[in-house]
Design brief:
Layout lengths: L16 H16 L5 H7 L4 H4 L1 H24 L1 H21 L3 H10 L4 H14 L2 H11 L2 H20 L2 H21 L11 H5 L2 H5 L2 H31 L4 H8 L1 H20 L1 H24 L5 H28 L5 H27 L6 H31 L1
Helix pairs in contact: 1-7, 1-9, 1-10, 4-5, 4-6, 4-7, 4-18, 5-6, 5-7, 5-10, 7-8, 7-18, 8-15, 8-17, 9-15, 13-17, 13-18, 13-19, 15-16, 15-17, 16-17, 16-19, 17-18, 18-19
């Protein structure tokens, strides 16, 4: 992949925080804005609904793979050129989606749209380039707010656009947003990656420093298992809402965003308090809070006291826990080897997406055996408990290293 270069100053220029929020927001928007249009798209292409639904699964698969690649590339060549290149590729792929004559061509361009993952991965790396660990966690809390707001409003906007102008309008929106964000990034985001000497091969030789670090894997596991509870929710909640509680699509759509409300609050708390209390405490509080809320829901479900208000109401704990865990654990994994922050961001993100996809599939499989919402709740409690365990082990490791140093 050719990397765009320019003669912009290579100073470590802090971008405006809204630029980073927009980068994360567009990456999130591209995942879900067109979801209400899937039936119309299936009809347009005369395709089976299951086939057009691959536009979600295939996109996530390519997204996870690319996260393993863009981080190391940005560590060697810089954040700015990789982000700008990724945005250009995203726009080209979006044009292909708009004018695709067949569903197969559409799916090919849809997979190519995953190039926008550079925006999410490298916005986190940019923050770590510019700030020390605890300050980075605070800034990441604000940046990732885009990931909580967009899921609440994206599908609604997409549904309105599809109703007024047809399903292609969703992709015209993404194209326009991509072009605007490219211009903003070009103007506002200077290079922030520390200069590295040597060749790309020399840099690759340093990767074992990161991959053999128990602290790195501990922070990754804390984040992956905490977010895994949310991905399990994504895989199982539609079934629970419709088949267990008998909710109609409109009502389900209204309640489905409950975790996003908690995530918004959690990110706000991370932005305000991470620098004061440190990332390890924030991660532990978030993981414990998530397990506490889900355990209460489990007890209520076992006792038969359940309804859609109870089930979705307690899902705010999932979002709250993620809002505390993810930005702080991300700052931790990026701080283990700061000169490999891009690699760490990509690898950590790939673990979250890959593990989340697996838990989402497991949730759907478990619910097929019956038992109402109980199998899903048990799976979410188990994932949250694994996050607590990983966090405690990481804190112990940090304490031993501090005592030894």
């Amino acid at each position: 992949m050719a990397i765009l270069t320019d003669t912009a100053p290579a100073a470590r220029t802090p971008p405006h925080i809204l630029t980073l929020v927009a980068l994360v927001g567009l990456s999130t928007l591209s995942m879900n804005v067109f979801l209400p249009s899937l039936p119309a798209m299936a009809e347009f292409f005369a395709a089976d609904y299951g086939l057009i639904q691959l536009s979600v699964g295939l996109y996530l698969a390519v997204n996870a793979v690319l996260q393993l690649v863009v981080g190391p590339i940005s560590d060697r060549y810089g954040r700015r050129p990789v982000i700008l290149t990724g945005l250009v590729l995203f726009m080209i792929a979006t044009v292909g989606c708009i004018f695709a004559p067949t569903v197969e061509i559409f799916l090919a361009f849809r997979m190519a749209q995953a190039a926008i993952v550079v925006a999410m991965v490298l916005s986190r790396a940019v923050v770590r380039d510019l700030y020390p660990q605890d300050k980075a966690a605070s800034m990441l809390g604000y940046v990732t707010m885009g990931m909580s707001v967009v899921p609440m409003v994206g599908p609604a906007i997409g549904g309105v656009l599809e109703g007024w102008f047809g399903w292609q309008a969703n992709f015209w929106l993404l194209l326009g947003a991509g072009a605007l964000l490219w211009a903003v990034t070009y103007t506002d985001l200077g290079e922030t990656a520390p200069k590295t000497g040597g060749t790309f091969r020399d840099q690759v030789r340093e990767y074992p420093e990161l991959l053999t670090s128990r602290r790195f894997w501990g922070y990754c596991a804390s984040s992956a298992f905490a977010s895994g509870a949310f991905f399990a929710y994504l895989g199982g909640a539609p079934f629970v809402g419709t088949q267990v509680f008998g909710m109609d699509p409109a009502t389900l759509g209204l309640f489905f965003g409950a975790p996003a409300l908690g995530y918004l609050v959690g990110n706000g708390l991370s932005g305000r308090f991470s620098q004061r209390f440190g990332i390890d405490r924030m991660i532990l509080w978030g993981a414990l809070g998530q397990v506490f809320g889900l355990s209460l829901l489990l007890l209520l479900t076992l006792s038969g006291f359940t309804s859609h208000w109870v089930f979705f109401g307690f899902m705010t704990f999932v979002g709250l826990g993620n809002g505390l865990v993810i930005p702080n654990a991300t700052a931790g994994m990026l701080s283990v080897r700061p000169h490999l922050a891009g690699t760490a961001s990509g690898l950590g993100g790939a673990m979250m997406i890959g593990g989340g996809a697996a838990l989402s599939a497991i949730a759907g499989w478990l619910l097929g055996f019956g038992g109402g919402a109980l199998p899903l709740v048990i799976l979410m409690v188990a994932s949250g408990a694994a996050s607590v365990t990983a966090t405690v082990l990481t804190i112990r490791r940090n304490a031993r290293l501090a005592a030894a140093g």
